[in-house]
Specification:
With 168 residues, the chain is mainly alpha-helical. The protein is built from eight helices and no strands. Helices cover 75% and strands 0% of the residues. The radius of gyration is 16 Å and the shape is globular. The termini are far apart.
């Protein structure tokens, strides 16, 4: 993957290792946030590339702005738990690839940890814990490379944007 997603993942690694001894909570918290946003933007970049590949750049940028954290979380929770709603289940080929479930699970965990890092001042982070989160995102990036062109990946990308609308 290119662009912002890859840069954010590199930034997360840099921040996690920034202080050699006794890392600052600010560095670790920003690393968690950057790792989450790396995965968030990976999925958006992939989706826009798939659905808007022939569209003008201005339209692709507008498409990218249409994604919401909450809708993406809901789609990922269903896939991570293996309990997609009936309308989505009917579209997915079974079994759903383990790589897609890995990506969905990582998204759910990283969003939760990003909320802790950004809003829970009583939460403490360790370099080892943050490094493990970054590794999960790296694993999700690799998993995406393996499944990107599959039928289920296309359904997943659609659910990230349209999941809420499909319930109507």
């Amino acid at each position: 993957m290119t662009g912002l997603a890859r840069d954010l993942l590199e930034q997360a690694s840099f921040l996690c290792g920034r202080e050699r001894k006794r890392p600052k909570q600010a560095s670790l918290r920003r690393a968690v946030s950057s790792a989450y946003y790396a995965l968030f933007h990976l999925l958006i970049e992939a989706s826009v590339a798939h659905f808007g590949s022939r569209s003008p750049m201005a339209l692709r940028r507008l498409m990218a702005r249409a994604y919401s954290h909450g809708d993406m979380l809901a789609a990922c929770k269903h896939l991570a738990l293996g309990t997609p709603p009936p309308h989505l289940s009917a579209l997915l080929a079974t079994p759903v690839e383990a790589d897609l479930r890995l990506i969905a699970t990582a998204f759910v965990e990283l969003q939760d940890q990003r909320h802790r890092a950004d809003y829970d001042l009583s939460a403490g982070f360790t370099r080892i814990g943050v490094d493990m989160l970054i590794t999960k995102v790296e694993d999700a990036f690799q998993a995406w490379e393996r499944v990107a062109g599959t039928h289920n990946a296309k359904v997943f990308l659609s659910a990230l944007l349209l999941g809420k609308a499909w319930k109507r």
